[in-house]
Amino acid sequence: MTVSMLDTMRFSPDVLDVKVGETIKLVVKNSGKVMHELVIGTKPELDAHAALMVKFPDMAHDEPYMAHVEPKKTSQLIWTFNRAGEFDFACLIAGHYQSGMVGKIRVSATDAAAAVTVPTESAPPHEMTQAEVRKVDVAVGKLTLKHGEIKNLDMPPMTMVFQVKDRAFLTQIKAGDQVKFTADKIKGAYTVLSIEIIQ
Q: Which CATH superfamily, name and number, covers 2-115?
């Protein structure tokens, strides 16, 4: 499955249809003359990520659900779709997302998949998530984590800059530590509520 990225700020095709449990190899081709990327997520996730990219332009681009592709180059994404629904993909480079460079992935459930679907409401509200500490910034009270899925935020694995509820957290950890943490969105900011080092 090939998706081309164009300097008209569009994807071609811009709608993909897959089945739950299907693993696809997505060939991401930059047909333009400027840098483009393809990032998979829900619209709220992409909105938040796009806002973070404006706020944090040095945000990492090394996650398995994204491809950052130079002009006239090609990259690949291999992704398994494990839940039904409609998801989005977008180029989150500043200005591109805002110009409408988005597409849609429609994931249809099989009968077997529908039978074992667990409502998201049944998940614990603040289940601990494993992560690797990438950066500790005590001066501004921020923490960069490469983390797994955060279920209560409906956030896929990514590298994200978080606020912290208590700056004392930042004196207990360092870059490279493996940790478990809980997080929530407080006053519009993704915030670490608790954190512990994995021994």
A: Cupredoxins -  blue copper proteins (2.60.40.420)
